[in-house]
Amino acid sequence: MSLPSFISMYQQLIAAPSISAIEDSLCMSNKGVITLLANWCESLGFTCEITELENGKGRYNLLAKRGEGDGGLMLAGHTDTVPFDDSRWNYDPFKLSEHDNKLYGLGSIDMKGFFAFVLQAISELDETKQTEPLLILATADEETTMAGAQQICRHPDLKPARCIIGEPTDMTPVFTHKGHMSTAIRVIGRSGHSSDPERGLNAIEVMHKMITKLLIIKEELKNKYSVEHFEIPYPTLNLGHIHGGDNANRICGCCEMHIDMRPLPGLSVQELQAILLTAAEEINAQYPNAVSVIDMHEPIPAFSGSTDTALVKLAEKVSGQPAVAVNYCTEAPFIQQLGCETIVMGPGSINQAHQPDEFLAMEKIKPSQAIISNMIKASCFSEYTQTT
């Protein structure tokens, strides 16, 4: 089997739906994408290992390797995409569409398209000059639980020296980023007729007390913690969704709010969880067992990196751009647990991620391919000549 053209790979990846979502009804298997990638990797001489996630549900990781021993470079990405609102798309999300010098499609930059860049770059290199192991990692469920990355970081025989995670950064190296927590605050009150408030416990009123505490926590986090590398230098707390009650003349028996928190490097997930639990305990002292704090998914820690590593310095040299910190999060803190120098750097702009009519600007294809190729050559090949 020969490797398809770059555009053909892109088309086939976009045409293989692989949505992951918290709602089970929206979830899809990523097996189609994994099968495509495994076949293409094998055509380039890679040995492939496909592993179903421990929670099953038809989601798989792919680890492909060419070369022997530890070390080398791993190129990593996720195979799933976010759900989409068909009414807001002008193009078929599952068909690669070219218009106005843009390639449209769900996953075009976030981030199935990255694999087409990687495979195209590897296919143009002389395998006989490869001196270090070359690995390709394709994970499942990054957009929800990051279960794929959490499982792969426990792999007993995976020890790359370097890893590039190809999230859309416009090929700017990212050396650190914030974490992510999605938490449900649930208040269980006691329903009753609104004409006799004392016979019930209004969950909305109790939630109001919890919100007051959360807003104080929000300001305390902003004033206590700061990392200058970030555009938003403090941890953030967002009150994102709330629902409670069912009728104006009934005492509300249940109210639930969903919040989003973004910890900085150096601020642990456990510390933030403890802060929330303490706030809930203070209210529960007045209203026993009324407030619960529930993680909506496994919290994602911040990615703590440094600008001093050899990989960051190489990426800055090859890309011509200084490494930066970003507010969103990726699989980097889990991949980093393998002991490898890790950066986030890939084609496409984060501004298009999770947006209707997601696209890759075609004028960025050649320069992005050149950077990826140079990063691979510098890490794994004996003859490195930077191309532009």
UniProtKB/TrEMBL annotation:
PROSITE patterns: ARGE_DAPE_CPG2_1 (PS00758), ARGE_DAPE_CPG2_2 (PS00759). Its EC number is 3.5.1.16. It is an enzyme of class 3 (hydrolase). Gene3D superfamilies: 3.30.70.360, Zn peptidases (3.40.630.10). The keyword Magnesium does not apply. The keyword Transmembrane does not apply. InterPro entries: AcOrn-deacetyl, ArgE/DapE_CS, Bact_exopeptidase_dim_dom, Peptidase_M20, Peptidase_M20_dimer, Peptidase_M20A. Pfam families: M20_dimer (PF07687), Peptidase_M20 (PF01546). Residues 176-287 form the Peptidase M20 dimerisation domain. Its cofactor is Zn(2+). Keywords: Amino-acid biosynthesis, Arginine biosynthesis, Cobalt, Cytoplasm, Hydrolase, Metal-binding, Zinc. HAMAP family: ArgE (MF_01108). Belongs to the peptidase M20A family. ArgE subfamily. This is Acetylornithine deacetylase. The lineage of its organism: Bacteria, Pseudomonadati, Pseudomonadota, Gammaproteobacteria, Alteromonadales.
